[in-house]
Amino acid sequence: MAEATALLEVHDVTKSFGAVAAVQGVSFPLYGGEAHALVGENGAGKSTIVKMLAGVHRPDTGTLRVNGADAEFHGPADAKAAGIAVIYQEPTLFPDLSVAENIAMGNQPLTRLRQIDRKTMHANAVRLFRRLGVHLDPTRPARGLSIADQQLVEIAKALSSEARILIMDEPTAALSSVEVERLFAVVRSLRDEGAAILFISHRFEEITALCERITIMRDGKHVTTEPLAGLSVDDMIRRMVGRDLSALFPKQEVEPGEVMLEVDGLSREGVFRDISFSVRTGEIVALAGLVGAGRSEVMQAVFGVDPYDQGTVKVGGKRLKPGSPRAAMAAGMALVPEDRRQQGLVMELSIERNVTLPRARKLARLGLLSGGAEREAAATWTEKLQTKLGRLSDAVGTLSGGNQQKVVLAKWLSTGPRLLIVDEPTRGIDVGTKAEVHRLMSSLAADGIAIVMVSSELPEVLGMADRVVVLREGRVAATLTRAEATEESVMYAAMGQEAAA
Length: 501
Description:
Strand 4 and strand 5 form a beta hairpin. The protein is built from 18 helices and 20 strands. The model has no long low-confidence stretch (mean pLDDT 87). 34% of the residues lie in helices and 24% in strands. The chain has two domains: 183 residues, P-loop containing nucleotide triphosphate hydrolases (Rossmann fold, 3-Layer(aba) Sandwich), CATH 3.40.50; 237 residues, Rossmann fold (3-Layer(aba) Sandwich), CATH 3.40.50.300. Helix 4 crosses helix 5. The strands form four sheets. A six-stranded mixed β-sheet has the order 6-7-8-3-9-10, with helices on both faces. A six-stranded mixed β-sheet has the order 16-17-18-13-19-20, with helices on both faces. A four-stranded antiparallel β-sheet has the order 2-1-4-5, covered by helices on one side. The protein is of the alpha/beta class. It is found in: Cell membrane. It holds the Pfam family ABC_tran. It is a peripheral membrane protein. This is Ribose import ATP-binding protein RbsA.
């Protein structure tokens, strides 16, 4: 039941970065005992709202109110003191400190001699984990923890500071379904204790499972704040994108041509074994399977980023030199990696420089790279992908997650590949941008490009793939045609179960 007075209220806030108006007059309340969804396409202003609530940015105009009183945050410490804690998609723990030390960071208990009281610190961590209903060793280093466990440590940190307002920014993007349900059980218990939860996600099934109220933004503006009860997914999508989304998976029927990629008996000790499959021109082949099945590892080896012990990779009938991304690129292969921030982009460089990195030598004249040529080449693909940006000279790190993904796509599509590998192409991307990426992939296949798509989202696999290669524990469990591939058949293969009659 919602409280009469909001624990936190965003009232008519605006925020601009140069000529870009990121947030324009947005208002909504957060009530205790309630989970509130904040949704919108990438670039809608969600991350800017989160950073204002976290004390990273200050509103240009408008006010933030905590417990009915106006609040000014001059930094993250002020937001924390006001009872606000933020859990990001990528946790920010100190890897070489213990779990207990991470939880107590900035608020360590002290002995009479003003030394850190480690016994009390560990006892506090145990008490917090018991309250959350999870079992984690407070003495182990944070390094090596799964993303799911790192997020539980972040929640414990929030509880240790007695936060009553918990902001969760895409917390489930890298989690399995089992880990998501465990996280949600913890969040529901905090909600039931009276905390206010602001939940940001692109997954509608999670929003409807967890939240009671929703705020929708579009192009930096507030569209609506209303109860979720009675709202269909179509209603939410229509409000987000400002149009009917006729087809999330606009798959074109294409007659596949010659074999472009042949993977035969690829093995790497302890990672994957005897992987064989092929991809033809005009064909989209999906690699599916549970987290840890080895999908990304196989494609990293195919592209030459990682080594392999046995097997061969052929592109266009010619054997590819192992362990050489340069040879893969020369053969017409392109890889859009899963981790766009760490592997796909150089965050400090400009948008135009990131787009043109693979082609820098070709664009150079007499060894010098022309800014005009670079800008022209980058503009072509950023416009094709409808990338929302200020200037091409801006650092790519200033873009929203979805627009960063478009820059990674632009970077590789500008090389004119014959074979495109896309690893989780729509992870963390809003529904409108997903449709654009799917439409682009379908168009590329129609133009004769062979595509390998690694995806954890079953609807995406079933909607876009001509064939599905299911991996389980580093082996090929099944290869299914589009007609054979269903949610049941893919999951049975991924889990090593026989399909029901």
